């Protein structure tokens, strides 16, 4: 269970970074010295690009670790025979690829909301579109799970196929719960 919590928290950190800086009271302003032509340089932009690239690389490494931990969690809880494993793991990999596509769409929707929220520019039309996008993602996720029931049933006994879907469901429920806590209501 601790591994599930760690995997959930790691995934949350990837999905909702935009709300890490919510609208907090502003600190008292201090006047920074004005840049003069002699002191202004383009180094911060170059440093910013390098920092962004490093952050992307670090995030990719981090996400690989999360995926590996999740796979270990599934393996530890499935109790697969060698024959079952040969049929299951390719299906698991396909499921994860489809799940990643859904997560990417969800991340884009959350990022869009975060941008509108933090800039205080979210319109009624944008909010409605985002809500409809999330509903579509939810429907697509249910359809994906239904699609994989047949594949899983072909290679696993019913109990083990159900166990795998329960594990995935528990992880998703934890992620959704954390997201609900982290994402502020529409103003």
What's the structural blueprint in terms of helices and strands?
Elements: H1 2-15, H2 43-78, H3 82-119, H4 124-155, H5 158-182
Helix pairs in contact: 1-2, 1-5, 3-4, 4-5
Structure report:
The protein has 187 residues and is mostly helical. It contains five helices and no strands. The two termini are 35 Å apart.
Structural shape: globular
Helix content: over 70%
| Uncertain regions spanning at least 5 consecutive residues | 3-42
- Cα gyration radius (Å): 21 Å
Q: What is the residue-averaged pLDDT?
A: 80
Summary of the model, kept short:
The protein has 187 residues and is mainly alpha-helical.
Characteristic terms for this protein:
78% helix; 187 residues; mainly alpha; disordered N terminus
């Amino acid at each position: 269970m601790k591994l599930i919590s760690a995997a959930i928290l790691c995934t949350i950190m990837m999905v909702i970074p935009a709300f890490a800086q919510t609208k907090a009271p502003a600190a008292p302003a201090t006047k920074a010295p004005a840049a003069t032509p002699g002191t202004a340089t383009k180094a911060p932009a170059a440093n910013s690009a390098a920092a962004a690239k490093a952050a992307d690389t670090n995030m990719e490494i981090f996400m690989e670790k999360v995926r590996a931990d999740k796979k270990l969690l599934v393996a530890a809880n499935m109790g697969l025979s060698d024959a079952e494993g040969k049929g299951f793991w390719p299906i698991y990999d396909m499921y994860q690829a489809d799940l990643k596509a859904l997560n990417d769409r969800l991340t884009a929707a959350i990022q869009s909301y975060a941008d509108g929220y933090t800039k205080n520019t979210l319109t009624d039309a944008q909010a409605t579109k985002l809500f409809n996008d999330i509903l579509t993602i939810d429907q697509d996720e249910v359809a994906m799970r239904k699609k994989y029931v047949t594949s899983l049933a072909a290679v696993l006994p019913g109990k083990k196929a159900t166990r795998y879907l329960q594990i995935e469901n528990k992880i998703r429920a934890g992620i959704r719960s954390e997201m609900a806590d982290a994402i502020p209501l529409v103003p």
